[in-house]
Design goal:
Helix content is 72%, strand content 2%. It contains 9 helices and 2 strands. Helix 2 runs antiparallel to helix 4, helix 5 crosses helix 6 and helix 6 runs parallel beside helix 9. It is globular and about 45 Å long.
Length: 213
């Protein structure tokens, strides 16, 4: 365990807290992509199925896995029940099936080994790298976002960006390498770059998040 991994996981937890807090204080899930949330739940379930046979290996990892799956499922429950009237499917229109197919194809072609758990893990890594796209697409369509929503997206992006130095640390210090995770993490971080720039130049200066016309 290194500082980059710890801070990344804390940033991930923070993003979840911000998202749930946003929905609870506004009584709305407006501006949040249900499709992205469904993709993230699929990521966590397919990746963390090993919790049933590795629970005693690391209490920290097991705790995080339970939190991520539970929080993701709870978020979707709120969006599809309590706050359903505030979700607009007319702007949450990204064709996520293409992301699912792409992740599945990459998992089949480039796994470390052909086993059920390994294929699911590889699928989850590739899917997570693009799961934010429906959310970013919503922001692009509306041209703006609530400040608290941008905080959620930013914290989620920081979480994945910090996993890159985490993998580098593990390579140079522990001699461990994981090219699939590193490549997928780089792809995901690149997808956030435009958002990071606007967040830094506008939201961090107290301005409203708006895309340039």
């Amino acid at each position: 365990m290194n500082i980059f991994r710890i801070v990344a996981d804390l940033s991930h937890l923070l993003s979840i807290f911000i998202l749930l807090h946003k929905m609870q204080i506004t009584k709305s899930c407006a501006g949040i992509s249900l499709k992205s949330q469904l993709l993230y739940l699929l990521v966590y379930v397919s990746r963390y199925l090993d919790i049933f046979w590795t629970f005693n290996h690391s209490l920290y990892n097991s705790f995080m896995k339970i939190i991520f799956i539970s929080a993701s499922a709870y978020t979707i429950y709120l969006m599809r029940n309590d706050y359903r009237p505030t979700h607009d499917p007319n702007i949450d229109t990204f064709k996520s099936r293409y992301l699912l197919c792409g992740a599945a194809i990459l998992a089949i072609i480039f796994p470390y080994k052909y086993s059920g758990s390994e294929l699911l893990w590889t699928f989850s890594i590739w899917l997570e790298s693009v799961a934010i796209l429906p959310q970013l697409f919503m922001v692009q369509r509306t041209g703006e976002a609530e400040t608290i929503t941008t905080h959620y997206i930013f914290a989620l992006g920081v979480y994945r960006a910090l996993y890159i130095p985490n993998w580098l640390w593990r390579y140079f210090v522990d001699g461990y390498k994981d090219p699939i995770a590193v490549l997928a993490g780089c792809v995901q971080t690149l997808l956030y770059m435009d958002f990071f720039y606007i967040y830094w130049t506008k939201v961090m200066k107290g301005k409203k998040f708006e895309l340039p016309v």
